[in-house]
Every structure is written in C-alpha cells, then in structure tokens.
Design goal:
The complex is a heterotetramer.
Chain B lengths: L7 E10 L2 E11 L4 E5 L6 H9 L6 E9 L2 E2 L5 H7 L4 E4 L13 H11 L5 H14 L18 H13 L5 E5 L7 H18 L2 E6 L2 H5 L4 E6 L2 E7 H7 L3 H10 L14 E15 L6 E15 L3 E5 L6 H8 L7 E6 L2 E2 L8 H4 L2 E4 L13 H6 L11 H14 L16 H13 L5 E5 L7 H18 L2 E6 L2 H7 L2 E6 L2 E7 H6 L4 H9 L5 H5 L4
Parallel strand pairs in B: 3-8, 3-9, 6-7, 7-8, 13-18, 13-19, 16-17, 17-18
Antiparallel strand pairs in B: 1-2, 1-4, 4-5, 9-10, 11-12, 11-14, 14-15, 19-20
Chain C lengths: L1 H27 L5 H6 L5 H11 L5 H13 L13 H36 L4 H15 L2 H15 L15 H35 L2 H8 L4 H30 L2 H6 L5 H10 L3 H29 L8
Chain D lengths: L16 H27 L32 H36 L4 H14 L3 H12 L3 H28 L2 H8 L4 H37 L11 H8 L8 H27 L9
The chains are: A alpha+beta, B alpha/beta, C mainly alpha, D mainly alpha.
C-alpha cells in the first residue's frame, strides 16, 4: 500500500475513532497512548535486536509458542500444551485451534516450522540466533502438532521460545514484516508515522481472550523533558519506562498519575576490560569495587530507583545471593589495594558511556568516586552504534557502564571472548554443568556458586538492578509492573472509569 | 525689490547645530523670474541656507530669522504645512544626479509622484503630466520612455528628471544646489540653458547655488557671496563683477582666473615618454544578467612627452583619459601598441623594473582616498622608497621627508600627524610631496585640483609650477577643466571616446580650435567674463 | 541571459557535486557498523555478514558513492539501512513537518520584524526605537532552546493551551497540525525576528540617508511617505539576504527545537540516523539540506533582480 | 545562530549617542564580568566542580551555595564560573580559526579579484556556507565523536567563510582607492599591499565582526552542548547544564535559570559591546569624508 493511501486510511480511521470518542464521551475510554523513548527501526522482532521492536509488538502483535507472564514465568501461548521426551531432547508442541493471522490465514504447524527454520538458517539475520542453536530438527506432525528435536537436553528451551525473537510468522508475510507486520496477536498493525508514532487496532478475530482496548498508539519521545511535558499535558497516557527518574516524585505527588516501580532483568554494571592492564590485576579490580558507593550512584543517577547488587544476578530471582558485602564501599581499602598492586599514585583509564541516563549520570558519579582513590577517568559519551563498535566488538575500552537486560544472562561470564574478557575455566565448566542440569535445586546451587565466583573475582563493578519505573494515568490498570522481558503487553490493560 | 508679497525673502537667518553656528544673519531675496546666484567655497553655508528655506534642516539644528515666500511666513511653518509647500511652491534640485533618484522607481513614477503627492489628479493624469514635463525638460517619452529606471540614463538625463520632478507643479521658487558640478562641461551648458529657459517661461525665481563663479556669471541676475556662514557681498551680477568691492570677492576672482608664472622650457628636450598606437579595452558586464561587452577605452593613442614639458590631456568623463593614465603608470597592461619611458618599454605589474618605477610618480584627484588613513605622513612619504634599490638610511630619510614637506609648504613636524588631521588642500600638498620624494622625472597628475576650492586650487597650481621649475619635472596633466589646463600646460591633447582628436600648443588649441569637438568643449565652458561681455541682462 | 542562466546552473551543479563528495566521504569514515547497530550484542558473526551483504555494505565506497549519487540524480535516495524503507519516502514524510515549520516560523518572523523594524526606523532615537532595540537585543541573545523550554513550561505544563510537542500529522487536520507547530515556530521565530528587525531598521536608516530620499522630501513627501514609498523597497536588499539565510537556518537548523518538541522533522531524522548509523539517510538528508540552502541562495539572487531593476537585464 | 552576514550585521544602537555609549559600557562590563569569572575559575572556585556530593543535591540558592546545587550536589555557582571558561574558550578559539583562515583567504581573493583563485576561494566559501553550522557540527561529531575540540572545529569552520567574505568585500573597497594605486606605482606587490595597506584598515570591522561571531559562538556552543555535541563531562558547560537540568526545571528552576541567564547575559554583553564598538570604530571613517 502506498503511503498516501496509508495516510488516508489512517486519517479515516482517526476520524472514525474521533467520532466514536465524541459519541462515547462519558463511556469508558478504549484507546491508549503509550510513550516510548526509542522508536523501533522496523517491526520485525526476528531480524533485529532493538528492544523497541519487542516493546511494540511482543504479545500485542506477534506471539510465540510460549510467552513470558508478568511475573517472569513461562506460560503457554500459541502452544496450548507440550510434551518433553524422557531424555529432554524432543519437545512436542500442540497448537491452539482456530488461530488466524491478521491477514485471515490460519496458523498451522507448517508456520512454526518455517519460523524456526528461518531463524536458525545459514543466512538468518536473527539477532538471537543462539536461542535456536540447539535445534536439530523441526517436524510437522499434523497441522496442529509440531515436534522439535534438540541436540542435547536444554533446561531453558521453553524459556528461549518465549523470546520475542522466536515469535511465529507466516511464510507469505515474513519478508514484509519490517513495515507491514502480520502476526497472530490481539492487535493488528495499522499505521506508522515515522518519527512520531505507531498505531495498532484491535484484531476482532483474535483466538484468545478479547482485549479491552480498541486502539493502541505508541508514541516515541526520546527527550526526557518532552516525555515529562507530554505526560503532564495528557498527550500520553502511560510511559512504562519513564526516562527521567527525577520526575517520578512529581508524578507521585499528582493524583492524576500512578507511578509503577518494578524490577527488570537489567543488571547495571561497571563493565571492566579484564584483559586490559591494569584491570588484568584482580587487586586493581577489587580496588575498583571498593571505590564505588552504589547507593550514591543509585541516589544520584537514578534518584533512588534501583536495587543494589553485589553480583551479576537479578535480586528478584529465587537463586539470588546477596554478595554486596564482598565489595562494600571502602575508599581506604581501595587505595591500599591500589598501592599493593603498584598504583599508589593511581592511573588513568577510559570510561565510555552509552546514551541512557543511568550510564551518563552514573558515569559522572563513578568518575568522581574513582578520582577519590586516585583513578582518573577520561569520559567519552558514545552512541549505541559506537558503543557496539568500539566497546562491545572492538574491546577498546577500560571501563564502561551498561545494563545487561537479557534475563538469566550470567552465562556471558563463561565466554572468554565476551567484551569484558573474563576467562575462568572453572566458571566455564560450572556453566556447562548448569546447562545439563534439570533439577531445580541443583540448578540453584550451581547458580549461587557462579554468582560467588564472579563476585569474588571482581570481574565487573556490580552497581544495581535497573528499576522499571513507569508512569501511568491513575485510571489505567493491567500494566506490567516488572519487566521480565522488553515488552508493553497491553492484553490486560483497561480504563477503570 | 519692492513688494514683499512676491518672491523669496530671507532676513536675519541664523542656524546653529548644538553650539556650533552654521549661518549668521544671512539675508537675500529671489524675485519671481529672477536668478539669484549664491556663491561660496565649501563650508560657507550656502547649502544650509537652501535647506533652511526648504525646511529640511537636520533635526538637531536650531533656526532663527524670517523666511517668507510670496508674503507667507514659511520659516515657522509646521512640518505638515511645509510638506504641502515643497514640490508645490518650492522645488529643489541637487548636486549629485547619479544618486538623487530612487534607483528602484521608474522615472515616470518619480516625476508623477510630485503631482500625486499634492493631490493633483489620478495616477493616470499624474503620469500624463509627468510625460509632458519630461518632454519639456528635453526627455520626450518616445525617446526616453517613462518606464525607464534611473540607472538606464546618463548623468545629464538624470539631472533633467530631477528638474522635471522639481518643476512639475510650476513652483514659484526653484532651488538648484550645485546642479552641474558633477557633470561634464557640455552637459553642464545644456542643463544651465534648460534652467534659464524654464525660469523665463514659468517666471520662477531660481536660487542657483555654486562654488563656481563662472557658472553663476553666465546665469545670475544677482549674486550673493557667502563665506563662513555670512553674506560678505551681494548685488546685481554685472555691478558686483565690475566693482569687486569686498576683499573676499576680489580674492575669489583672482583665484578663479589665476595663472601661475610660466615655466621656461629647455631647448630641444629629449622625449621622456613615448606612446605608439596604445590600445586598451576592458570587459564590462551590465547588471546581474548582462552579457559582457568589450569596451575599447583607448584607441590607437600616440604622443611624445618631452623631458621638462607639461602636457595636458583634456576630455569629458569616460573618454578614456584615466584608463590611459593607468596604462602609462604600468598599473594595467596595454592590449596593443607600446609605451616607452626614457626609451625602455613600460610593462605592467610586478615585473616592471625599479629603475623604471622610480622615474614616474602620480598625484590623484581624491584628497581622501589617496592615503592610507592608518599611516602617519612620515610613512606615507617613505613609501616611494620601495622603488629604490638602495633606499636611504633613517637619517637621510628624515631629512628628505622634512625637505619634501617644506618643498610643498608644510612643516617638518607634520610628518608625525595622521592624514585626517589635514585639510583637502594640505592633503594634495602631501600627495605632491610623496610624488616628489624620490625625484622622479615624470609626474602624472590625474585631476589634481578638481576637488579643491578655487582659492586652494590657485595655491596648488602655483606650487606645481614652482616645483617644475626647481626640479625640471615633466607633467602629464589630466583634467576636464580647460581653464586649469590653460594655466599650467605647455601643450594639450583633446581626447574623445578613446582617441586623441586634437593636439598642439595649449594657447593655440584653446584659442583656435581645429576640431569640432574641441570647439564644442570651449563653447560650453562657462566664462567668468560673461556678464561683462554681454552687458546687462533683462 | 541564457549564458548567465547556464553559467549559474553549471556552478550550482558543480557546488552540488562538490557537496555530495564532501558529505559522502566525510560520513564514510564514521565509525560504527549499521549492521551491528541493528543486531545488537548477541549477534553472531555470520548473521552480521549476511545483513551487511543484504544492505550492500560489503562493496567499496567508490562504488557505493556512484550508486548513491546516481540514485540522487534519478530521485532515488536508496533504501534506509535500519528502516528498510525508501529514504525518499522517509525524507518526504519528515519534510512535511520541517518545511511547514520553517515557513510558519518565517511568516512569524516577517510579521514581527517588518512592523517592528519600520516603527523603530521611523522613530529613530525615540522611546519606541529604544524599546524595540532593547527587546531585540534580548531576543538575539536568548538561546532558542532555552526559550522553548520556558514556552513549554508556561503554555503546555502550566496553562495547558498547547500540547508539549509531537505532531498529529496533517491527516488530523490543518488546525491541530498548525497548533502543534505553533510553540516551536514561536521559539524559532523570536531570535530570527529580532535579527531581522535590527537588520531592517539599520537598512532603512541607511537608506533614509541617501540622496534620493532628500529629493523625495523636496517633492513634498512626508517622513512617513518617504519611509514607505522610497526607503522600504531600497532597504529590501540586505533584508532579503538575511531572509534567505534565515530560511535556510530554519529548515536545517531547527534540529534542536525539533528535539525539544519531539517533532518528527528532518533534524531529528539526522540525529536518530546517526545514532543508528543509518548513514545513507544522514547523507541524503544533509545533501537535501545543502541543496535547499544553495537553492534559496539562488532564489534570493533572483529576488534581488525583482526588487532592484539595476540587476535586471538591460533593455 | 544566524546574523552572521558581514555586510549587514545587526545594526547600530539606537540614537547613536547616549544609548550607544551606555550599551558599550554595559556590554564591556558584562563581558568583563564573565571573562573575570572564567579567569578566576582557573585558580579558585567556591567548590570543586568535579566533587560529587549526592546528599547535597538540588538545593536552592543559599548563603553556602549562591546559585544552589545541581542533581549531583555540585555547586552551581562554581559550575557557572568554569562553564564561562568553556564557553568563552570555545567561542574565542573558533573565532580565531575563522579569522586565522578566513582573513588570509579573503585578502588573497580580493588581491586576485576576478582571477581563478578568487573564484575558487569564493566558491569553496559558498560550499562551506551551504552547510549550516549545526550540520557541520553533527557531521564532525558523527565522525570524531563529541568533544569541546570538535565543537570548536565545527564553529570555527563555520566562521571561515564569514570572515573570508567580510574581508574580501571590505578589501575590494580598499583596492579601488588611490592610495593602493600609489603603492603600486611605487612597485609594491599585491601580497605586500594586502598586508601593509589593506589589512590594517580592516582591523575595526574585523574587531566588530569578531565580537559578533564570538557571541554567535557562545550561542552555538551552548546549542551543541545542549544536544550533547559539545564539551564532555566532567567539564561543566552552560549548554549541557541546561540539558541535564531540563527534566528538573519544573521543581528546581534554579538549575535552568542560572545557566540560561548566563548564556543570555554573555551573548547580550558581547552584542552590546560589538554594536558599541561598531559605532565607535565606524569602519567607514577612514574611507569617506
């Protein structure tokens, strides 16, 4: 469809919506404007990493075999149920009946096979191709049954299938998904005014429980001030991840708004280049850890929102171990450790900061704290693209601050090529063991052991768990409190008055 | 001078700006049909008197005295009433026709504006009236359409447009402030004739302001001579010219007719400057979208200038005399022919050898643009040393500078002053001193006295003659003023459209011109003895 | 005339070629890989290579320059790396915000500057003049983004007369769209109007000192008539120059204001594209803006001729 | 960030006399104040601007903190002082680049007026002029990353054609004058005449334009820092202070007030000074009677 027609259609729809709104002036509102900081580059979650894509389409437009529930647990989605073979390598999924795509075609097992094969193929551009690495074969048993064979047991397979990158698309529409996504969710794509907003409308033939909203608009406001103004002026109904924690107090004080503070999977860390001298010396890393006052960072950068952590693990997870004491704030000890390591006069290193305010503000505070113990930092603010290029791929950095938002990602410490370049064979074999282990209690023990190792090796400076601090009109209910994955699931959202 | 009901009467007019008096007790009158010449050198207050009559004095000025026009007291009139009066009762024309017209309005609209502004008819009627008036001033619409813009007209044509807009409503009084000063002599004669005709036909009073006695002499019935804001002499033209009662009047006459003592010529001098078939053209682009056109400014000019000779080059503006001067100085290359100085060819540009450079110097017309305002006189005078291979040391230099200054009648102490501290005449003396300091053989004088008042002009001409005598200099004297050329040159060449049309000993050429153009030039030149020759006028 | 037009067109074309070379090769060395930016931290090397091939990034810069420049000539700006939509389409959408905003701000600028400049020139040295000059002095000195913040605080957050930003799109109607552009246009226009007022005033005062003004006064025109009939048109030349510069500035330089009001305009597109290393978009937008500036300069040249007959072709 | 056109500028102060005089002195006083603050900040500020004291954050103005504290508990007054240093230094060096490159280019173009080098210089100028300053800055920072140095470079590059055009235009006027011709008659070359005769006469107009570009530079630096393309932390900069405090504007107005007013007053001061100098050092004084 040409964009003119799109615009025309959008205009008509808006007009209709406006009329409907006028008629039902006192009735329940059935539309919502959701504010987001970043605009997605496109709308195909299976070919890009951008969180913004999932924040629009996850659970709203696209669905996978399984899904994350608001509490982070794994729930069935398109798969009604599943069986796992004794040895844990064969998964048989039973699909819901009567599921249709937004173009009217019916979802069947062939679509599941296509989606998974596409994601793991040679020329796949799936950003999380690793999720599918264990799949050996996907077979269609019958139109509503699909069988997936893994090369080895994987305790996290259902979890992997819940990711936005693993949603099910139809072969006919997959290539057009970037600009005209066709999924199975309760909302279908309607319009995208680039640079401003994306509009979704209710899909009447949705297979699951009908949703309360008729219309959802995602509005992109990258500037925190503008975000504040937009909330205050009523242009936006909710900002699930409000970019400026400093304004939350004002919203809290205003009865029109409700502040929703939950947790995310984002471990915010002072990432340290373990291969770059002097950080290859554990004493230096330990000094670094003791130089940091986590609470000051949380207070200064996040205005108090955030949970301090002592290791790379989400505090809300049952297996979490509180190891903060290992790296308690102690500048004197830090100085002593530096002197022991031969840096009595301190040293100078680089601190590269990506755009989010936790990094930019946190970086300034940490730079000041490090200066107290004699470590000078040269701050460089970088865009994400540069961060990926220089820091993540080029490993050209001393320190950086970043929030690792993938759920359950302690496994990155087992990859010696990962950008902070921590290479510990003990930890690596521990992770291998975890991967093969299905017993929950044994897994917890292994996970706690892993947490302790990286905390005591002071691999990185562990700062805090990123809070999900959102704002919403007080009359809206059903928004996610926590963020087990990057999503704005609107299926349960409704206006109360 | 009887009835107070008609004409302009100015009595006891004093004007001051701040605490500085500009006019002091000025009085004169202009009867209907009368031409009143107001004469004075720069700063005499003649223009300010005109502004006082027009009510166009600067805002800061304070005025006292009585000004009446046709019995009406206009001195104390409100601005509103004066606006109604200007253009209707009094018209005024100005010195600089090139800038006196709005460049973005057609000439028809500007003439018609006088009519429209005083409510005399519709737009259409006003344009018709403008066409009539323009025809009357010698710009018939079928030759010069009303839709022309000022830039498409010559200076003389523009001045005619200004006159048309001033007389469109047949005012009782026309004020002309140096109306021909910026024009060539032939054009000047035409404009003066036009003004005389209009005065006669309309019975207007004309207040003709000029620094040039000769211009006024041929036109005015009565003359008022002003100096430093006061009237020093006044009376009917013939009587005043004959009597020359006031010392200042005498001085003015003396300066205007001044001829320096002749300089003896050496016998059989060798040629110093030789030009053979010199050609010079330049490309002109008219306007933003104009097609560039080749202008042949100098066409096949040949002449010899002997050592110790003063050679005049006369012609009207645009005839190519300045272009030729630049080529001789080696500032511009020639496109054809050859220029030789002391036998060696002159090449333009930095390749010109210093021994050639030091043989000639130049004095320009503009006493303001001729000097770097940031430099002291000492540095200005030192500049020609650049042309020497072996410039003198500081001691010799200081001596040379004070000598040069005393040669031109200035004080050695002036070397430490900046140029803006000097008057126009003093600046021309400094320019001469600069030209003199390296003792060149040839000095090119490009209109050196045109911008000077007559009394100063006479002194500078004396100085030039004196220096020539003392140092055996040769002059190439470029001028548009026949009287000046007659006073200071041995031989003269008449130039027209890039060609020399006549050349010969000065007296011979000016008294017995052979070429028509020379004759026309001489006929157009205003003559100081006009009122005396023609006898009294009506 | 024809020769001049050809010469002008040729020099315009050469400027554009030079500009395109500068833009392309300056941005060619921008660090950062659009493919990496799209695929994020967990991307695998083969995935990245596949994407780069898909985007045509595996080819040499010279080949890509000719692709891009050749496309520009045909009006084909290429395909955005990140959005995978035609760049021309994206630019057209954004232009529908930036261009009206620039025109709106320019209209406000003219509406403020002309009366103010004329009033100040007419009453030179009087109270009106001093007041206008004082206010414009402040107007020039105030950073426009700060002024924009103050406007949002006053009119959006406190008074709630205008929305704090965003753009409903022209399909929402001309009224709402213009309303959304009002505060940004004011924020842009105030400093520009201050500059133009001062330029107009000094041009008028300079013109009022010309000989032909004296001639006109001698014809009996009042000060006011002289100002309107003679001074204004002659003062337009420097004013046109500034208006041309201002339009270019408003079109290209509104980046900051677009950020404050989160308007989906060209300026924000540039920032966003740089962040995503969508270099082809950056190159095309920069080229478009440069083209606009060159074009405006050319139009201002033509406008001179309309105002000043001396610059027209001689008859 | 416009008004850079050399031919027109922003006009003289009204009334000429008293107002211009007052403007000159008010301007000089404001500029002097900021320069003094900037210089003083090298040796002394009330507090260390790099010291973060989160506990003392967001305090309003008080005797201890004259302008209050920011969201990290840093003393705003100290930051304004150091910010003055950043702003003035960036703008000054940028003007220096513009003059240092633009003036020689303009002089050369005027000396060789009509020649191919003149044409080349002026076309190159037009090309640079076709890139709005912000675009240059965006491109430079896209390539080299944001820093105060790159901001200087961007503003400096933008200044080059401004000075080149101004210099050429004014120099062309002088090349028409007879004293240049007199110097040529004495055998002086174009280069020597440019330096000896033309350049000194351009000082006044260069000073005036320099002042104006200086004020534009401060605005530009503020704008660039505001969008994050200017001076990087921890070095305080007025524009970044505004950007960082923007979200706190509604509950801590002093954070936006003082940096904003600082920019306003510094630019105002420079403009008043420039206009005053323009009236004082009328560049045409030497040219016409």
């Amino acid at each position: 469809m040409s964009s003119d027609r799109t615009r025309l259609a959008g205009g008509t729809a808006l007009l209709v919506a406006g009329l409907a709104l006028a008629q039902a002036a006192f009735a329940q509102r059935t539309d919502i404007v959701v504010g987001m900081g970043l605009e997605p580059p496109h709308l195909d979650p299976t070919t890009a990493a951008a969180a913004a894509i999932d924040e629009v389409v996850y659970a709203n437009l696209f669905e996978g075999l399984t899904r994350f529930a608001p509490d982070g647990s794994i729930q069935p989605a398109l798969a009604e149920s599943w069986d796992i073979s004794e040895d844990g390598t064969v998964y048989t999924f039973r699909l819901h009946e009567g599921v249709t795509f937004h173009d009217g075609s019916t979802l069947d097992a062939q679509d599941v096979k296509f989606s998974l094969d596409r994601a793991r193929s040679e020329d796949s551009t799936n950003a999380q191709k690793g999720l599918f690495a264990g799949i050996e074969d996907v077979t269609v048993v019958d139109p509503l049954t699909v069988q997936i064979t893994l090369d080895q047991p994987d305790g996290g397979f259902l979890f992997s299938m819940a990711w936005g990158d693993a949603v099910i698309v139809a072969e006919e529409t997959a290539d057009a998904a970037k600009t005209a996504p066709v999924g199975t969710g309760p909302f279908r794509f309607e319009n995208w005014v680039q640079g401003d907003r994306i509009e979704l409308v209710k899909y009447p033939d949705y297979w699951g429980d009908p949703v309360a909203l008729d219309r959802a608009v995602f509005k992109f406001i990258s500037d925190s001030t503008a975000a504040f103004a937009a909330m205050m002026a009523g242009d936006v109904d909710t900002f699930p991840i409000f970019p400026a924690p400093e304004n939350l107090a004002q919203f809290e004080a205003d009865p029109r708004f409700r502040v929703i503070v939950g947790s995310t999977e984002g471990e915010t860390i002072l990432s340290t280049n373990n291969k770059q001298p002097p950080f290859d010396d554990p004493k230096v890393r330990q000094a670094l850890a003791h130089a940091i006052d986590r609470q000051a960072v949380i207070d200064g950068a996040m205005f108090g929102y955030g949970t301090p952590i002592g290791t790379h693990f989400a505090p809300h997870h049952p297996a979490y171990l509180d190891l903060k004491a290992t790296s308690a704030h102690d500048p004197d000890k830090a100085r002593a450790l530096l002197a022991e390591a031969g840096y009595a006069d301190g040293f100078t290193t680089t601190l590269k900061l990506p755009p989010p305010s936790y990094a930019r503000r946190g970086g300034e505070i940490i730079a000041a704290q490090l200066r107290e113990v004699g470590i000078e930092t040269e701050i460089t603010n970088v865009e994400w693209a540069q961060w990926l290029e220089q820091v993540f791929r080029g490993k050209d950095f001393g320190l950086t601050i970043v929030s690792h938002t993938e759920p359950m990602d302690i496994g990155i410490y087992a990859n010696p090529d990962y950008y902070f370049q921590y290479d510990n064979p003990d930890f690596q074999s521990l992770m291998d063991a975890l991967r093969a282990e299905a017993d929950p209690e044994a897994r917890t023990a292994l996970l706690q052991q892993a947490q302790t190792i990286i905390a005591e090796d002071f691999v990185n400076g562990y700062l805090f768990q990123l809070a999900k601090s959102g704002v919403a009109d007080a009359r809206i209910e059903g928004l996610w409190e926590n963020a087990p994955t990057q999503a704005n699931d609107l299926t349960g959202v409704r206006w109360t008055e | 001078m009887s009835g107070a009901e008609t004409g302009l009467h100015v009595e006891g007019l004093s004007v001051s700006i701040g605490r500085a008096p500009i006019l002091r007790d000025v009085g004169f009158s202009v009867a209907p049909g009368e031409v009143r010449g107001i004469i004075g050198e720069s700063g005499s207050g003649k223009t300010m008197s005109a502004y006082a009559v027009m009510g166009l004095l600067p805002r800061a000025a304070r005025m006292e005295g009585r000004v009446t026009l046709g019995g009406q007291d206009i001195g104390g009139m409100s601005e509103r009433d004066m606006c109604a009066l200007r253009g209707q009762q009094i018209g005024m024309i100005f010195q600089e026709p090139m800038t006196a017209l709005n460049p973005v309005m057609t000439i028809g609209a500007q003439v018609a504006e006088t009519v429209r502004i005083h409510g005399a008819g519709s737009r259409r009627a006003a344009m018709a009236r403008a066409a009539e008036v323009l025809e009357r001033v010698g710009l018939p619409p079928d030759e010069v359409p009303l839709s022309r813009y000022p830039h498409e007209l010559s200076g003389g044509q523009r001045q005619r447009v200004v006159i048309a807009s001033a007389i469109a409503l047949r005012p009782a009084l026309l004020i002309a402030d140096e109306p021909t000063t910026a024009l060539d002599v032939t054009t000047q004669a035409q404009i003066l004739a036009l003004l005389a005709r209009l005065v006669r036909e309309d019975g207007m009073g004309l207040m003709l302001i000029s620094h040039d006695l000769a211009v006024v002499a041929g036109m005015a019935d009565a003359v008022t001579i002003m100096k430093e804001g006061r009237v020093v002499d006044s009376g009917p033209t013939e009587a005043l010219f004959r009597a020359r009662r006031h010392p200042y009047t005498q001085a003015l006459f003396a300066a205007s007719t001044h001829v320096p003592d002749p300089v003896p010529q050496p016998p059989e001098p060798p040629p110093l400057l030789q030009l053979r078939n010199v050609e010079r053209s330049y490309v002109q682009r008219s306007g933003l979208f104009g097609r560039p056109t080749q202008i042949r400014a100098v066409r096949g000019v040949s002449f010899d200038l002997a050592a110790g000779e003063s050679l005049g080059l006369v012609g009207e503006s645009g005839c190519g005399k300045s272009t030729l001067g630049r080529a001789i100085l080696g500032l511009d290359p020639v496109d054809g022919g050859e220029i030789r100085l002391a036998g060696a060819p002159v090449h333009a540009g930095p390749t010109m050898p210093p021994e050639q450079r030091r043989r000639m110097q130049v004095v320009f017309q503009d006493p303001f643009g001729s000097f770097n305002p940031r430099h002291r006189v000492r540095r200005i005078l030192s500049e020609p040393y650049h042309a020497l291979d072996d410039p003198p040391g500081p001691q010799a230099r200081a001596t040379a500078i004070s000598d040069a200054l005393s040669d031109v009648g200035l004080d050695a102490a002036d070397a430490d002053r900046f140029i803006h501290e000097f008057s126009g005449g003093q600046r021309q003396r400094i320019a001469i001193a600069r030209a003199l300091i390296i003792r060149p053989e040839l000095i090119l004088l490009d209109e050196p006295v045109s911008a000077l008042d007559v009394s100063v002009r006479a002194q500078v001409l004396d100085l030039l003659a004196d220096l020539r005598r003392r140092y055996g200099l040769s002059y190439l004297f470029i001028s548009h003023d026949l009287n000046v050329v007659r006073a200071v040159t041995d031989r003269v060449m008449v130039m027209r459209k890039g060609e020399i049309v006549e050349a010969g000993p000065t007296g011979q050429v000016l008294d017995a011109p052979q070429h028509d153009y020379t004759r026309a030039l001489i006929a157009a030149s205003p003559r100081l003895d006009a009122p005396l020759r023609e006898g009294s006028r009506g | 005339m024809l020769r001049f037009a050809l010469f002008r067109a040729l020099s315009l074309g050469l400027s554009l070629v030079a500009a395109s070379l500068v833009v392309f090769f300056a941005l060619e060395i921008v660090p950062g890989d659009p493919a990496a930016a799209m695929l994020g931290v967990n991307a695998q090397e083969d995935t990245l290579a596949a994407l780069r091939a898909e985007l045509g990034l595996d080819r040499g810069p010279v080949a890509r320059y000719f692709d891009w420049a050749g496309g520009l000539l045909r009006g084909d700006f290429g395909i955005s790396y990140t959005y995978r939509t035609p760049v021309a389409q994206m630019i057209a959408d954004r232009l529908w915000v930036s261009l009206p905003l620039a025109l709106y701000a320019l209209a406000l600028t003219l509406l403020i500057a002309f009366p103010a400049g004329l009033a100040a020139a007419a009453r030179r040295g009087k109270g009106t003049d001093l007041t206008i000059m004082g206010v414009t002095q402040l107007g020039i000195a105030v950073p426009n983004f700060w002024f924009a913040m103050l406007l949002v605080l006053a009119f959006s957050i406190t008074l709630r007369w205008f929305s704090a930003g965003g753009f409903p799109g022209w399909e929402a109607g001309v009224g709402p769209a213009m309303k959304a552009l009002t505060l940004p246009a004011i924020a842009l226009a105030l400093p520009q109007a201050s500059i133009l007022t001062r330029v107009l005033r000094s041009a008028l005062i300079e013109t009022l000192g010309q000989d032909y003004i004296r001639t006109a006064r001698a014809r009996g025109l009042t000060r006011r008539q002289v100002l309107w009939r003679h001074a204004l048109r002659n003062a337009l030349i420097p004013v046109l120059t500034i208006i041309g510069l201002q339009f270019s500035f408003l079109l290209a330089g509104a980046i900051i204001i677009e950020n404050v009001f989160y308007l989906p305009g060209l300026g924000r597109l540039i920032f966003q594209s740089i962040g995503q290393r969508d270099i082809i978009v950056v190159e095309s937008v920069v080229m478009l803006l440069v083209f606009a500036v060159i074009l405006v300069t050319f139009l201002v040249d033509l406008a001179y001729a309309a105002v000043d007959p001396r610059l027209r072709r001689p008859r | 960030m416009i008004g850079a056109d050399p031919q027109t500028g922003t006009g003289g102060a009204p009334g000429g006399g008293a107002a211009a005089f007052a403007g000159l002195w008010i301007g000089a006083a404001l500029v002097g104040l900021f320069v003094a603050a900037a210089l003083l900040s090298f040796v002394w500020t009330p507090y260390d601007v790099t010291r973060i004291d989160v506990a003392a954050k967001l305090q309003g103005p008080s005797a201890a903190h004259w302008f209050g504290t920011d969201h990290f508990g840093r003393d705003l007054f100290s930051m304004i002082m150091v910010g003055a240093r950043t702003s003035l230094a960036v703008a000054l060096v940028a003007v220096g680049i513009g003059m240092g490159v633009g003036v020689p280019l303009g002089l050369t173009a005027a000396a060789l007026r009509g020649g191919w080098l003149d044409e080349l210089i002026m076309r190159a100028n037009d090309l640079v002029f076709a890139f709005p300053a912000l675009l240059i800055a965006v491109m430079i920072t896209a390539v080299f990353g944001p820093s105060a140095f790159n901001a200087i470079l961007a503003i400096g590059i933008f200044n080059i054609p401004v000075f080149a055009r101004l210099t050429r235009g004014a120099a062309l006027g002088y090349w028409q004058l007879d004293f240049i011709r007199a110097a040529q008659v004495c055998g002086k070359g174009r280069a020597r005449i440019s330096v000896e005769h033309v350049l000194p006469n351009l000082f006044n107009i260069l000073i005036v334009q320099g002042t104006i570009q200086f004020s534009l530079g401060i605005l530009a630096e503020a704008g660039l820092s505001y969008v994050g393309l200017g001076a990087q932390p921890p070095l305080p900069s007025w524009g970044r202070m505004l950007a960082e405090s923007q979200t706190m504007f509604s509950f801590a107005p002093h954070l936006a007030l003082f940096p904003g007013l600082s920019i306003l007053l510094a630019v105002l001061g420079l403009n008043l000074l420039g206009d005053g100098l323009r009236d004082r050092l009328d560049p045409r004084r030497g040219l016409a009677p």
